[in-house]
Amino acid sequence: VLPPGINPKKNKPYGVRLYSIASTRYGDKMDGKTLTFTVRRAVYFDPELGQEDPSKKGVCSNYLCDATPGTPVPVTGPSGKVMLLPETTPEVPIIMIATGTGIAPYRGFIRRLFMENTEAAEKFSGLAWLFLGVANT
């Protein structure tokens, strides 16, 4: 995602922020024209001030969280490795572990398995396990 604005520390446009896509390859509307992201708004609570410090809020997460549905968002990519569900062994259990990677890619897997009318989804007969681990501080 390319957030709008100028980075005040570098006096240049903000750089790319990486997010995992949370929709399947066809998008949530099944039209191939949409992407869904799972985003947590990044804010910083200053214990000395007893309130949030707006100078330390996440530039891109706040941009995405403040956007309304249908807002065009400039994106680039994909980058990284592609993860696909197995289609040749529909009886094998699928174990998804979301810790440092977040839950976003697994949202797409679950939608593909249980909500999309695909041959792979119709044949799937295994169990799907999703484990979510989060920091507790």
Automatic annotation (TrEMBL):
Enzyme class: oxidoreductase
Keyword Flavoprotein set for record: yes
Residues in FAD-binding FR-type domain copies: 1-85
Required cofactor(s): FAD
A Pfam match: NAD_binding_1
Keyword terms of this UniProt record: FAD, Flavoprotein, NADP, Oxidoreductase
Signal peptide: none
Molecular function terms, GO-annotated: ferredoxin-NADP+ reductase activity
Annotated EC: 1.18.1.2
InterPro entries xrefs: FAD-bd_FR_type, Flavoprot_Pyr_Nucl_cyt_Rdtase, FNR, FNR_nucleotide-bd, OxRdtase_FAD/NAD-bd, Riboflavin_synthase-like_b-brl
Reactions accelerated catalytically: 2 reduced [2Fe-2S]-[ferredoxin] + NADP(+) + H(+) = 2 oxidized [2Fe-2S]-[ferredoxin] + NADPH
Protein family: Belongs to the ferredoxin--NADP reductase type 1 family.
Full protein name: ferredoxin--NADP(+) reductase
Source organism per UniProt: Amorphochlora amoebiformis
